[in-house]
Structure formats: C-alpha cells, structure tokens
Write a structure and sequence with these properties.
Blueprint (H helix, E strand, L loop, with lengths): L4 H11 L6 H13 L2 H17 L1 E2 L6 E2 L5 H4 L4 E8 L2 H10 L3 E5 L17 H9 L5 E4 L5 H13 L6 E4 L15 H9 L7
Parallel strand pairs: 3-4, 3-5, 5-6
Antiparallel strand pairs: 1-2
Length: 199
C-alpha cells in the first residue's frame, strides 16, 4: 500500500537517522500522526533549534550554545589536566563520571579504511593548546579498539616534544563483571593497567 506523499517523506526522513530502518521509521511517523499536534510541533521546533543554536566551541570543539563553551569558560576547572576524547557525546559521559579538568574533542578517530586521516581530526588544535602552556597532563580517552589505539598513538607522538605528561585511560575488566566472561584482550588490558592497593 502506498502512503500519502507527506507520510512517505517523513518515513524517508526518519530512515536517514542511524539505526532507524523502514519499520521503525513507519512506527515513528504513525506515532506522530496520532499524537497531539503540540508533540509534533515541539519535535519540529527542537530540531530547528538544534541546527540554529548549537555551535562547536572554538577551544575544545565540544557542542555548545556559547563560545567558549561553559566548560572552557569555567575558571574553577582543573586547567592543568586535559582529557582527549573522540566525540562530543564522550564529554557528557566523562562529566557524569566526575572529570573536572578540560577537554579536547578530536571529532573522530584515524581510520584509513574510511579515508579518515590524522589531518581530518583536530589534533593540530590540541598541539597548539598544549604548546600555549598551562597543561601538565593530557589524558587520552579514545575508544579501546584498533582505531582508538592508533589515534592515541599518533596523538602521543605529536605531543612528545611538548613539556607535558601523556597518559591513557585504564581499561580491562568492567566493575561488577566476572572474569570468566572476559576475553583475552580485556584480561591483558587489566593486567597492564594494574595498580597498587591502598592501605
């Protein structure tokens, strides 16, 4: 059965979103058709506001409505420590985890198979920020996979000449999980990232 053009257009629009296939797009579209008009209007206005008010911070590349972003503008942050992440969504995760230093968002990771090279990332901006002084430690928090490791290695080499300590976040067995369900790579990471017990 063919849908009216307006419904087809909405379904096609939803299908451009990551992880949304035809069935999900149809469910979302028909939900909006049945929902009160205010719900659809709010969704449309929120999407328009997203595109018109969100910018990239000129210092850290995180998403914000002001430049510099609230984190970079906050003088109470620990400005001696900078956490390097791949995407803006990673900033939100580390904020929730309690990080109180600065951030630098690379806007991706090195992936030659997809044509993403170091020059496509914001590594030059990171090097410039570190060279400006004040940062004593750069913590690399890229994803624990091949691309994340390659990106971390490249960034650490770029920062070798700077007077800054470069560290990588620990990885290994997740808290609350059982060793029997951990694979060899997780166990290897856990052994390499071991630390002394206090007390």
């Amino acid at each position: 059965m063919a849908y009216p053009p307006a419904v087809t257009r909405l379904i096609d629009a939803f299908k451009t979103l990551p992880g949304v296939g035809t069935r999900t797009a149809e469910r979302l579209s028909f939900h909006l058709l049945r929902a009160p008009p205010d719900e659809g209007r709010e969704l449309a206005e929120a999407m328009l506001a997203l595109r018109s008010s969100i910018i990239a911070c000129s210092q850290c590349n995180d998403l914000a409505e002001t430049d510099p972003c609230p984190i970079c503008a906050d003088e109470s942050r620990d400005r001696k420590r900078m956490l390097v992440v791949e995407q803006p969504r990673d900033v939100a995760a580390f904020e929730e985890a309690g990080w109180h230093g600065l951030y630098h968002v690379l806007l991706g990771h090195i992936n030659p198979l997809e044509g993403i090279e170091a020059r496509h990332l914001t590594i030059d901006g990171l090097v410039d920020r570190v060279a400006a002084g004040g940062v004593e430690e750069v913590v690399l928090a890229t994803d624990p996979d091949y691309e994340g490791d390659a990106t971390s290695l490249h960034v650490s080499r770029r920062l070798e000449k700077g007077n800054v300590r470069v560290t990588r976040i620990a990885r290994g067995i997740a808290s609350g999980s059982a060793i029997e369900y951990s694979n060899a790579a997780m166990l290897s990471d856990a052994l390499q990232g071991r630390s002394a017990l206090d007390g």
